[in-house]
Every structure is written in structure tokens, then in C-alpha cells.
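Q: Given only this backbone (329 positions), what sequence would you predict?
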């Protein structure tokens, strides 16, 4: 008998397809990935020595990765249609003598001397969504008027993020890890300039931060590689990360993202997942920061404040030095 129920849905197939992305197989390696610079040394050491994670990326994280890939595709399409696309996904490596090689895959190389007329005609032919065509045409008009003879070639790194993180980058600038990743490509390509592009997944706002090949950034870059090389070559497992950190910029305590996002969270710190880690520290950190403010304001300590100060000091922080806004651990 013919089934006359023609009702259908694509959400299950969509979700399964998105979540079918597999983690990269963990194999021993003797190189640092560019995206790892600035991350926890102990996690990097375990991955480089082939230790299987106890906390691989969950389905939500995999969906976020794919959302990031979608944003990269949108940027690539805009670059191609604007006529300034040069290359994408190029593997580049850099190595200091006696240290581990650093390798990474840059998102885009863009710039040069475009054919503006061809770019404009292609926009009309491809049938882009109205908002996308409008944005791309605006980019062409702007670049054509400002750089009639062409532009410098630059490395572009695209990062999608939440509106919350977008506001943070807007206020404080690019993430240090992202700076190091972009800086690696400058070292490998012997180029002077890269741009980190942040796109808010919530409202499609864009922020562009410049990264330049300076001695200051190279010092941070090389120090990270030297430290990781020392652990690796001497076969010394790096120490675990502190679960709580003090941010000198904000003057507040916070949970350490290097712990919360660790692929070895259960193995190293005893938490089954990030939720358990957050549950332990969220309320306590709020209390710590309230007490810290009273310390800085030189206010009288309540019994709860005194108890909180003991907790803070038990974690290795020196309260007296906080009065001057200095890092204490």
C-alpha cells in the first residue's frame, strides 16, 4: 500500500552531517602547530607524544568548528568576487636552529592588483544574496578608490566568535594566541603584515586587527617555541595549569580557559567535563572578586571575607600584593 504521508524534515540529517566531522587522529609528532602557540604546554606535550585525549571535542564544539568554516567560506567568496583573492589554505613552516619546527595553514593571502571591472561583472552574474552583493560592491568601490594602483599582499586569518567575545576583542584587541598564529605566517612567508578578521556569529559584525612583524611579537613567539622545545627534547612533562588566574588588565580573578577547554580535563584535573569545572568555580570566583574589591578599597573584612581570603591564599595568591594591582602568583 502506498504511503501517503509525505511529511518530511531535514534537521536530523543536517545535525548528523555536521556532527560527523571527526577529530584529527592523535599521533606522535615533532612539530608545533601554529594554532597551539600560547596554549597550555602540558596539553601540547601530551598531544605531541601521542596521548589520546580523555575529553575530545563534543558535538557542540564540532558544530562551532563547522560554523567557523562557513564564515571562512563567506569571506573567501567576498575576496574572490572583489578580485583580491590570491591563495588559501597554504601550509607554511618556520624553524629556528635547534628548536622545534612550527607549521600551520594560513586562511587567505589577499591583495595585489585586481581587475575591478571583471570583479564587478562577476558579482552581477553569480546571483549573490542581496546583502552579500551589496557588501561586496561596497568593498570594491572602497578599495578601487583608495588603492587605484593595487594593494600590498597581506595574510588574512578569519575567526568567528560569539557576540560576547566580539565585544571583548573590540575593547582589548586581538587574542594573543591569534596574534601568534598570524605572526607565524609572517615569519614563514617573510611578509610584514597580517590581518585578523573577527566575525560575530550573532549579528555578522566584523572587526579587523592588524599584526605586524615586530621584535616584540617575535620575542613572545620565539620564547614559546623555546619553552616547548625544551620540554619536548628533554622529555619533561610540563606542569599542570593553575585552575584560577588573575587578570592584570581587568584586576579580577577568572577560571583558566586553558584548563576548562583542555582535551585532557579528566586525566589532568579530575573533571568529567567543562560543566563540572565551571560549577566548582563560578560562584567562588564571584565571591573572590567581591572580596578582592573590598581589599583594594581598604574596607573592613567580614567573617565571610576573611574565610575567602584564606581560600585565595591557599590557591597561591598573595593578597598584600593585590593592593597595588600586581600579579601575585
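A: Predicted residues:
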Amino acid at each position: 500500500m502506498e504511503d501517503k504521508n509525505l511529511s518530511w524534515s531535514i534537521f536530523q540529517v543536517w545535525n548528523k552531517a555536521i556532527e560527523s566531522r571527526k577529530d584529527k587522529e592523535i599521533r606522535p609528532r615533532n612539530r608545533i602547530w601554529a594554532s597551539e602557540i600560547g596554549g597550555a604546554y602540558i596539553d601540547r606535550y601530551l598531544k605531541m607524544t601521542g596521548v589520546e585525549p580523555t575529553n575530545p571535542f563534543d558535538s557542540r564544539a564540532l558544530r562551532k568548528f563547522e560554523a567557523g568554516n562557513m564564515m571562512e567560506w563567506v569571506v573567501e567568496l567576498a575576496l574572490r568576487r572583489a578580485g583580491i583573492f590570491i591563495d588559501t589554505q597554504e601550509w607554511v613552516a618556520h624553524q629556528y636552529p635547534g628548536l622545534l619546527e612550527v607549521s600551520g595553514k594560513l586562511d587567505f593571502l589577499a591583495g595585489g592588483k585586481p581587475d575591478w571591472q571583471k570583479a564587478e561583472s562577476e558579482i552581477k552574474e553569480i546571483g549573490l544574496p542581496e546583502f552579500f552583493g551589496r557588501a561586496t560592491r561596497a568593498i570594491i568601490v572602497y578599495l578601487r578608490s583608495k588603492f587605484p594602483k593595487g594593494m600590498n599582499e597581506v595574510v588574512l586569518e578569519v575567526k568567528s566568535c560569539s557576540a560576547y567575545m566580539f565585544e571583548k576583542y573590540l575593547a582589548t584587541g586581538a587574542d594573543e594566541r591569534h596574534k601568534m598564529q598570524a605572526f607565524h605566517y609572517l615569519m614563514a612567508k617573510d611578509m610584514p603584515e597580517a590581518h585578523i578578521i573577527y566575525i560575530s556569529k550573532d549579528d555578522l559584525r566584523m572587526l579587523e586587527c592588524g599584526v605586524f612583524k615586530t621584535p616584540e611579537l617575535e620575542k613572545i613567539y620565539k620564547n614559546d617555541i623555546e619553552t616547548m622545545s625544551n620540554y619536548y627534547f628533554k622529555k619533561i612533562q610540563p606542569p599542570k595549569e593553575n585552575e584560577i588566574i588573575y587578570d592584570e588588565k581587568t584586576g579580577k580573578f577568572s577560571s583558566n580557559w586553558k584548563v576548562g577547554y583542555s582535551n585532557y580535563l579528566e586525566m589532568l584535573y579530575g573533571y568529567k567535563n567543562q560543566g563540572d569545572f565551571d560549577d566548582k568555580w563560578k560562584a567562588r570566583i564571584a565571591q573572590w572578586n567581591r572580596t578582592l574589591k573590598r581589599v583594594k578599597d581598604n574596607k573592613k573584612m567580614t567573617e565571610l571575607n576573611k574565610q575567602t581570603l584564606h581560600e585565595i591564599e591557599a590557591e597561591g595568591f598573595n593578597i598584600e600584593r593585590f593592593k597595588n594591582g600586581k600579579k601575585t602568583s
